Amino acid sequence: MTDAPSTGPDDAQEPGTPEAPDVPEAPLLELRDGLTPVIETAEALADYCAALAAADGPVAIDAERASGYRYSNRAYLIQLRREGAGTALVDPIAFESLAPLQEAIGDAEWILHAATQDLACLAEVGLHPTRLFDTELAGRLLGHPRVGLASLVERQLGRRMRKEHSAVDWSRRPLPEPWLVYAALDVEVLVELRALLVDELEEQGKTEWARQEFEHLLSFTPTVRVDPWRRVSGTHKLRGRRALAAVRALWTTRDDIARTRDTTPSRVLPDSAIIAAAEALPTTRAALLATPGFKGRGADRYAARWVEAVQEALDLDESALPARTLRGDGPPPVRAWADKDPAAARRHAVGRDAVAALAEERSVPVENLLTPDYLRRLLWAPPRTRDRAELVEAVGAQLASYGARPWQVELTAPLLADAVLAGDVEPYPEPAPAADPTDEG
């Protein structure tokens, strides 16, 4: 199903033409079995685990976190559905261990949507898949224009999903019934959706692509960021390393407070207040609270700690100040390649365009065809051989060492080998403009 084009004053219907029929809105998705009570006792968990183990087929799983409210990314509700066992809403906070749930699932395939969002918090409570199917990733590989769960459900199943409780505080107890209905609906049709996507993957010849991608997800771990304080919004506007040191000290203080209170850091002090203090560098409580832009729930409450953090930055020796930019282990920014290594710039231009063209041809997002960082690393420092057959093999091995899957290597290695060879060819200089015979100078 595709969205109908919007109309406006310039799209007025011509006189005498019949009116276009109204497109009926897709019916709202409803729970087939009604809402079941939240599982929060060992007896209730044992009963559902018995039903789950006796049922067949894949298990749809989802988790709700309290992002924007709590410091941690722990799961505050886990939803499961298996044909023959029905839907369960499990409160993980009520249990020391969910080992019985893991045992009941066994080696059944998990169905998740956007698996990387939930795998870590599910692992925290002892739930680990041995096989999985990611409906969002399948949608990407199939080239669907929108891959959110609601969009896929409407496109594939002709049903609308509720969206009004997507950003609520799932750590609240008891959870309101409308929230629980919303959560249960997230797994209501995952089994059916998976079946349709499996057929579509087969039709497009992408079943093996998906298998490799899903297998790769089994080893997923969240990226641990170096210098996470650099993600404070507005840091790029600051001048001087002393101001960066203040951002670092304020961010660290805020993080400590947020962790202790189990609240999201932005609810303690917004990024904009950190930037305001780093620019002004106030050394007294009065000066800090008078700083334009320094506000937030914890601005006054923790004022002494903010001043202490600023003073810490001011007292640092010059050699201890943070670098202006974080030096990574990868290549320099592509915009600098033309000056640093013109051949690399030529390789990148050719390789980028070739991969983009292939992605369009295969109806897959370019970032799913090949991770952009892999492409940059390969073309900045390619294999030395220039024998094409050897080069294709060496490029494939290098991509695989970064983490590219075999299907990605098979499709892109020949293109990138050609890009390496093209980069070695100096372009012909543009001919000088012909002399103007009327120019007497």
From TrEMBL:
CDD domains, sorted: RNaseD_exo
An example Gene Ontology molecular-function term: nucleotide binding
All residue ranges annotated as the HRDC domain in the record: 240-320
InterPro entries membership: 3'-5'_exonuclease_dom, Exo_C, HRDC-like_sf, HRDC_dom, HRDC_dom_sf, RNase_D-like, RNaseH-like_sf, RNaseH_sf
Top-rank taxon, per record: Bacteria
Gene3D superfamilies assigned: HRDC domain, Ribonuclease H-like superfamily/Ribonuclease H
Protein name: Ribonuclease D
Species for this entry: Nocardioides zeae
Taxonomic lineage from the root: Bacteria, Bacillati, Actinomycetota, Actinomycetes, Propionibacteriales
